[in-house]
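We now fix the convention by which a protein and its fold are recorded. The integers have meaning only within a learned vocabulary of local backbone shapes. A record is reproduced here so that you can trace the correspondence yourselves:
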Amino acid sequence: MTDPNAASRRPVQAVVLAGGQGSRLRPYTDDRPKPMVEIPGTGTPIIGHQLAWLAEEGVTDVVVSCGHLAEVLQKWLESADLPLSVTTVVETEPLGRGGGLRYAAAHLPHPDRSWYATNGDIWTRFSLRDMADFHAERGAVATLALARPRLPWGAVQTDGFGHITDFIEAPPSTFEINAGVYVFSPEFAAMLPERGDHERTTFPRLARERRLAGFPIPQGSYWRAIDTAKDLTEAARELAALAGR
């Protein structure tokens, strides 16, 4: 049975972590932060796609945590016609991933409500509403989206005698990974370190307490982390293929 109160519990606010230097994306990141890099053929920076997706999923307010070349990102956000309200924050000193997330979360407009968070170099599309419902159903404090990325190498299959039986180009990983998209309950922000990495402190503790959930991104949904120039090229090709369906 569908929970009639589910919609009212879904987040309407989010944090986008956009402070990375993107050194592996140079020269694209020589004059702009990583989330401002455009995927060829789309005419929109990565963060533009993210903000559009968040708005489609019911988000009305976003806090963007800036760092490297923050002024470039802030200038674009000020001039862009955005589908939601955006606030930017800049760390005055490096706080680490967990500290930066806590600092940004302190600027969310509804501290008593759940919130989404996403890394600024992720290009994806799936139902955040379904993820929020999954989070609520499990009574989790934090829920991570899980992806199965394709391996960058070809793989082989062998039989029991060591004979190669097949070649598979870029197969999906057998392991699920942290996809860089999250749902957090209101109390999560206070559990974050003021400085340091929450993935080494807060997440392991919640996992031991069985309060950390993993939401598998539905099969067929698009997901890619944009880390290198090759990722840009492949994302452009994949998105063109999707548009041609």
